[in-house]
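Entry 14. Ran structure prediction on the chain below.
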Amino acid sequence: MASDIDLGAATIIELGERIRRREVSPVEVVEATNERVERLQPVLHSFVTHCGDYALERARQAEREIAANRYRGPLHGIPYTLKDVIATRGVRTTFGNPRGVDYRPPEQATLHRLLEEAGAILVGKVVSEIGRDTSGPVGCRNAWDPSRSPGTSSSGSGSATAASMGLLSIGTDTGGSVRHPGSNSNLVAMKPTFGRISRHGIWAASWSDDTAGPLTKTVEDNAAALEAIGVYDPLDPLSINEPPSDYRAGLGDGIAGVRIGVPVDDWIWKDWLSEEEEEIVRAAIERLGELGAALSEVRMPLAEHARNRALGLSLASERPVFIRDHFSEEEIEAWTEIHPQIEAGEAQSFEQYQHTQQFRARITQEANAVLREVDVIAMPTGSTYGDAWDAQTTVIRGREVSARSRGVYRNGAASVSGHPAISVPCGFGNEGRWPVGLMLHGRPLEEALLYRVAYAYEQSTDWRLRQPPL
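Output, structure tokens:
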């Protein structure tokens, strides 16, 4: 019976094994997920489109395949969601238009095809904050505290996964938009190496930065998801032509001797982070040392400017090109919320854009130099810790700052350099109510090492076992 499945405690690996052994059927899992969506959507507003009937049809297909001994792997029969900037043939796609316009893309995103081939079951498209007006009475809410933000802009991915309305979601990350909701929602969130996941069929307003990434409850779940979608795709000219990796193979190898750099720069710890969050993250880094990692201090002064002098200007210049390449003039004219973004981008000169790319190269050089001295950089995840869901500003250590973008200052270095970075839950603040994330930033194509470090930390704590009070 669907009511016998505890989705709140379920993980991909554990539930997938029960499905493989036929202790529970994909149909029962999807029925339980659909019931959960219907109950929690009015509270969290995570979904743009709930495709319950489509999911049941796919679940029946998965049930037949497994009964015929055609089990496809750990994602077979597992419900998942997609940020609604990812094209899905046969399922409504709005590309973040707040009016819910259905653009009916002629092609599906490669990662959606790969997930379908792995046997995963799409239960819905979730909120993207692209073009959304947060001044209205409804907005995507945090599963841990519905008065709080799940993070931008893959907010629906964080909210839905934390609430177990799907055990996996794929968001997109330009300057932290997978990692933000991961930190805010007690989830594991991976921004892989730029080019690791195909962007074919995905809104990629920044040609230089945008990438998709998985959000899950555990590190092993996340690694299994990246195994399925981190595949070379000739349809994406920036896709990395590397064979698929088995990211789970070395998860339990431990981290003895792994060199972890801890930045000392004030812009990472003091300018955009509360005292309580700093204390929680520093305790997590100390735990890495106790687990055998070699901790040392590093400095990243240029990375402080990644948001304002690299990410922001690149995105502004590249966004209008993407929009005009992918939407008709009639669609653009009707989508008034993105007009200011187009105008701002087209007002920039080529000289400004060129200087931006030069500064990006300097930030990348700095990060590469640090990662020659250490294997991983550990710091707080960029987040909107404790902010109200519609907050425009917040107060950090007595200073009023922008609420929606303060996390990008820390996440920007990995985005600008194209390096992989993962956020892993590391504690709770405000008397155990608000999740906090630890970010690990690594060298290109070394997602396996990041997963290993994150797994060692995760297994030494019980943060992954906590469930939101829904």
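Confidence is low (pLDDT under 50) at residues 131-136. Will compare against last week's run tomorrow.
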